[in-house]
């Protein structure tokens, strides 16, 4: 089953046994109204508990205070200070996975990334566009050091046009996504590690 508000997307990537042209939230609500209620199975209960365990694990990572600073605690602070209508521009890379896990978004928040083409370096310029179109909202760019290094000149644009964007750069001195893909080939790593960059000095 595929539900999409864009008719051009229905069956585009995969054959859909049932294709519904509708807003997903409204369509799911309508389906729940007409489908018969089923008793909770053991499988369902086990997976519901898995969700509880998973969220508790993420919370433990985000709120821990011992040891070195890790990205989990950074997300905890982002979640603490973000506004309910904040907009997030996510770069491409490990930051996509970590944001999906640790960024606590309200229904009124918006976030976007370069999903289809996976364009590294999209985070900072995307935040510029969001800021220009939403002068009254808090705007964030979340990037890895690889993506941020590709477009660090766009910080000049932010300053020149006095665009208040909160730029967060997660640094691990590598193209993490690409390194993972190279690891799958069992042929070693090529061009995926680089020297540490002091982005605070760049800013």
TrEMBL record:
EC number annotated for this UniProt entry: 1.2.3.3
One Pfam family here: TPP_enzyme_C
Keyword Oxidoreductase: yes
Gene Ontology molecular function: any one: pyruvate oxidase activity
Chain ranges of the Thiamine pyrophosphate enzyme TPP-binding domain: 91-203
UniProt keyword annotations, A-Z: Oxidoreductase
InterPro entries per UniProt: DHS-like_NAD/FAD-binding_dom, POXB-like, THDP-binding, TPP_enzyme_TPP-bd
Listed name of the protein: Pox5_2 protein
